[in-house]
Each structure stands twice: as structure tokens, then as C-alpha cells.
Amino acid sequence: MIRAYKFLMRPTVRQTQALSEMLREHCSLYNGALQERRDAYQHVSKTSVKYGMQSGQLKDIRAFDPERQGRWSFSSQQTTLRRLDKAFAAFFRRVKSGETPGYPRFRGVNWFDTVDFPKDGDGCRWDSAPHDPVTRVRFQGVGHVKVNQHRPVVGRVRTVSVKREGRKWFVVLTAEQDQLQPLPATGSMIGIDLGIANFLADSNGGFVPNPRHGRRAAVKLGAAQQDLSRFPRRKARDRTANHQRAVEKVAALHGKVRRQRLDHAHKTALGLVRAYDFIAHEDLQIRNMTRSPAPRPDPEQPGTFLPNGVAAKAGLNKSVNDAGWGVFLTILHAKAESAGREVIAVDPRNTSRTCPECGHTAKENRPAQEKFHCVACGHTAHADTVGATNVLRAGLVRRDANSA
Questions:
Q1: In this predicted structure, what is the pLDDT of residue 43?
Q2: Which of 171, 195, 199, 340 is the 20 to 30 A CA-CA neighbour of 206?
Q3: Domain count of the chain?
């Protein structure tokens, strides 16, 4: 099993400058490789440049520019080229499947925030001085950087990454663990229904309130974005001090909301994993749920469009994204795998319209957002609780079918 760890680094002023230069030069390498691919396709009879060809040029690039490109890890530069190759592979996959392609774009310095090292010991070294009471990580061209290690790393470190978030620097590790440490069995099972009014409703009748972190920060974030909009758009190197402070204020508010959302997801998922052996949830297609409505051309007046509810849908999409269902489900599956729990996703269709007592399914069974009233047997309950109960039953059926 592979687990990830993220620790705050405490670089010195010189190390901060070196880390920034490392990101800048890897960004330059990425953009240069992208430009080569574009030029080869446009001007050399639609020739495709592959990763192997660009990786083979790295030695010449490092020898030609030893001060900028030659001082960094060769393996990390190969990983940057692989990142571009994966972007093109995803582009061609979307073209073949008929989706919106999205051609790979050039990266600005502020939008290139991560450098990956594919192997511990190759251009980097985690905790290279075990006799030192302070944890450190060493990077080629930077040196030994202090790390605020708030928990032990279990397993063998596989990969190391440097990540910049605002003015903070983080090291991200992936470690391979040979043996899991499952939690003791509880003999309990539960179904959960994710929503907006309540973040989560379970089959036992419990509810987890929706914290709405984004909505609570909307006033401050709107004011900060309004202050930022007063400055003309400039590149990072051309910004004034006031412009840079406005940019950092907006980024800090977004970062706080993101950390609050992650903290809530971790705590909620951990509580479920500790209490239940089996957890069933809806298999939500969040990307489809938050898709903007297609425009509706007016057949009687060419060039005009009919109302399609895009404003109301935008508000719903904002609430769905603020709830962070996708982040929560990803964390839930990861914690469940580590703890030896079983999590199953089921089809969400009609889970809130089916009576758990008699099995009658009808749209009229849910007269209001929170109310469930079966028109066949008269059973009444909270609609989200009914949905969670049906999710649990569908999960058990699917588990039995898979075991058979």
C-alpha cells in the first residue's frame, strides 16, 4: 500500500531563493519542450516529438547551460518532461473519445509549483542525517532543508516532491507499507447520503451539518478579489508591492478555505472508519452534476437564446463544490483501505424516492426536499435518512453479489 505524507519545510533565505530558481528552471524546461512539440508539428510536416527524443536531449541541454539547467537533478527534469508527455496523452485521449480536448498550455512561473523526484536518493534524500534531532531533506542544488515532521513516516520512502503554496514550502513523500494495521472489528454497518442542506445523513438517522466554508468566507474573499481587480493584469516580475500583497491575500483566503474543507473531510471520514466495518455511499458523478447547462437557441429568432436556468444551476454548482464531496469520498476510501474496512459505491438513482418499508418507488413519495411520505403505505421519514437506508441495502446486495 502507498501512503502520502505532507510536511512543512523551514528553508533559509538562500534555500528559499534556490527552491524558487529550481521551480523556475523546471518551468522553463517544460515550456521549452512544449514549444518544440508545437513547432515540430506545425513546421516539420506534422512530426510528433515523443518523450524519449526530448529526454535524450537533456544531457546536451545541461552541458550547454550548466548554471541554470545543469545544477538540478537529472531525474527530476526527466519527470518534468514526463508530465508534459502525460498532458499530451490525455489530450489525444480526449480527442479520440469526442470530449473537449484542451491542448496543453504554457505554464507561468506562478502556475508551476511542484517538482517531483521519482526516487529517494536520486537527486534528493529524505532525513539524510539520522543522528541529527532535526528532520531534514536534501535536494540537489539546494542543500539540507529543515522539515517540520509532525508525524512519523511508516514504510520505505519511494518518491519525494517539492510543493510551493503561497509563501510556504512543503515536501510530499510517498511511502510503501508492506503490512496494513487494520482496526478491530465493530460489527456495525452504515449507509450515507451526501447532500447540501446536510453534508451527510446516515441510515441510523444521524446528520453531519454542512460547514459551508466557502460561503462563510465569501464576504472577505469578495472584498479581497475586488481590491485585486483594481490593479491591471501584469506578470509576476512586473507587479508592484501593493499588487503582490493583494494577490497573496486572495491566495491566503482560498488556502484557508481549502484547509478547512480538508480538515472537515478527514475528521468525518475518520469517525466513520473507526465506528463501522462496512460503509455504503452513492456513486456520484460530480463532474456531470456540476456541468453548466447547454445553451438553447431560439428557433423563431436566430442568434438569440431561450432561458436555460444557467444562473440557478451556477448557484447549485457552487454549493456542490463548496461541500467537497469528491475530496471526502477520496479520503474515505483511503482511510478505509488503511484500516481494513469495506466501502462500496452504489447507483444513486431513486434512493430517495423508494420507500424502505414497502418498496414503492414514485416521484410523489418526496413532496419536499427534506420530507418523505410514501403514497402507498403512508411511511414518513426524513428524505435523506430514507436515501441512506436504501443506499445501505443496495450496498449489502452488491457485496453479497460480489462475494458469490
A1: 81
A2: 340
A3: 2
Question: What is the band of 181 on the pLDDT scale with cuts at 50, 70, 90?
Answer: confident
Amino acid at 356: P
**Is the distance from CB of 369 to CB of 383 less than 8 angstroms?**
yes
131 lies in some domain: yes
Amino acid, single-letter form, for residue 192: I
Of 83-92, 151-160, 284-293, least confident by mean pLDDT is 284-293
At 216, which helix (H) or strand (E)? helix 213-216
Q: Is 138 helix (H, G, I), strand (E, B) or coil?
A: strand
Contacts of 341-344 spanning 24+ positions with Cβ under 8 A: 341/182, 341/183, 341/273, 341/276, 341/277, 341/278, 341/279, 342/277, 342/278, 342/279, 342/399, 343/278, 343/279, 343/280, 343/281, 344/278, 344/279, 344/280, 344/281, 344/395, 344/398, 344/399
Pairs from 37-43 (Cβ < 8 Å, separation ≥ 24) = 37/84, 37/88
Same domain, 33 and 145: yes
- The model's confidence at residue 131, banded by pLDDT at 50, 70 and 90, is low
The reply to whether 182 falls in a domain is no
Q: Once rounded to an integer, what is the mean pLDDT over residues 8-26?
A: 96
Note the pLDDT of residue 404. 64
Return d(Cα 66, Cα 222) in angstroms, integer.
45
